[in-house]
Specification:
Layout: H1 2-27, H2 29-47, H3 67-75, H4 82-93, H5 97-107, H6 112-125, H7 139-162, H8 174-190, H9 202-211, H10 217-226, H11 245-274
Protein name: NR LBD domain-containing protein
Organism: Caenorhabditis elegans
Length: about 280
């Protein structure tokens, strides 16, 4: 009996300790979320294949807002609930002008959003470097699945949350920025050595041609090849000269002038002979 009482008292004491520990954890939850977001960005930047110098104004490292985790999840093609998107847009609306500008820079080509889009491709193809060899066998299907997530999850979610940023930058278009990042960081690398047609990628390539601007000439050439367009043939070095109507008119005019000259010469000769 005594042993049983001690055991029950010990269990109660253990439960009290657990409750106190849970309270301490709940008090520091915001701090943990902020640290988690910073660690996720740092680990993501270290895994990118192409080294680059991140801009301090285009990262989340000095942007301690809870909505950053939701934006990161959206960029990674996770499903975001309607309540979370609504709360995130409300928090973005309440940001200062400086904080909103930092968020805009985050989505620009030099920001970390482009790196996250590229990292999604690394995960989809299970690789650390993107090349044209990945399009062999079932690579085209993997690219189609990645494209489907980009258009059905990533872009719609970001549009629903980031629309308050248009107030300070009317040219801000998160759809164009994400598609441009996909074009430069994913598609350009997958097509760099492409030399044949990919009919299954037609919708992707046409969308990139229509929705993005300033497409590099080399990438446009590769897109034309993948669409089955034959390269423009150069003109033959030597061509047979075709006589134009202008030339015929000029030549006939010269002939008429020459004929008149002959008549004048004959008239002169006849007048001289008669004299």
């Amino acid at each position: 009996m005594i042993f049983g009482k001690k055991s029950s008292i010990g269990n109660v004491f253990y439960d009290v300790q657990c409750v106190e520990q849970e309270k301490k954890k709940s008090n520091s939850i915001l701090r943990q979320l902020s640290q988690l977001s910073r660690r996720s960005i740092e680990s993501l930047s270290s895994t990118l294949s192409s080294p680059r110098t991140p801009s301090p104004r285009a990262t989340f490292s000095d942007y301690p807002n809870p909505c950053e985790l939701i934006l990161l999840s959206a960029l990674q093609a996770h499903i975001i609930s309607g309540d979370d998107m609504r709360n995130c847009s409300t928090e973005i609306q309440a940001l200062t002008l400086c904080e909103k500008q930092k968020l805009i820079n985050f989505f620009k080509p030099e920001g970390d959003a482009s790196g996250i889009i590229e990292n999604n491709a690394f995960k989809a193809f299970n690789c650390s470097n993107l090349s044209s060899d990945l399009l062999k066998e079932d690579g085209s299907e993997l690219l189609e699945q990645l494209w489907l997530k980009l258009n059905s999850l990533v872009i719609p979610s970001l549009q629903s949350m980031c629309f308050p940023l248009i107030e300070i930058d009317t040219s801000f278009d998160v759809q164009t920025l994400i598609l441009t990042a996909f074009r430069d960081r994913v598609l350009a690398k997958l097509l760099q050595d492409a030399d044949r047609e990919f009919p299954q990628l037609k919708s992707i390539l046409l969308t990139i041609l229509v929705e993005t601007e300033d497409i590099p000439t080399s990438l446009r050439t590769k897109i034309d090849i993948c669409l089955g367009k034959s390269p423009s043939t150069s003109k033959p070095r030597y061509q047979k000269k075709i006589r134009s109507k202008t030339d015929s008119c000029l030549s006939s005019k010269r002939k008429s002038v020459s004929w008149m000259d002959d008549m004048q010469d004959n008239s002169r000769k006849s007048s001289t002979f008669c004299a």
